[in-house]
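Example record used in the benchmark description.
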Amino acid sequence: MASACLTGPVKLKVDTGIWSRLTQVVALLIAAAVLLLVAHAYLPVIQQNERMRRDILRLDAELQKQAEISRQLHAEMDALRNDPATIERLAREKLGYARTDETVIHFDPASNSPATH
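Model output (structure tokens):
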């Protein structure tokens, strides 16, 4: 009796010529074209997204700046409502008021032109 040895499937190399290679190249080119079309379609969206992110950062900075100004103005209003020393200081600075026993001396601002002798 002859025994048959099974070693598994036999792989045959079939040369289909240039057509299989051309099919692979065409498939690769189609995949590259699809990727380029997708990238080209989404490029404006990506650029718009970046512009909007920059706008958000700029507006957040402006919002923080305006919030700080608002806090300062509220503190100033609170001082004007509740602090007599603040009112007295502003009356002296802005209106030139003084107490009866004080002498007020005003200085002219210095000029930038050279003095002539």
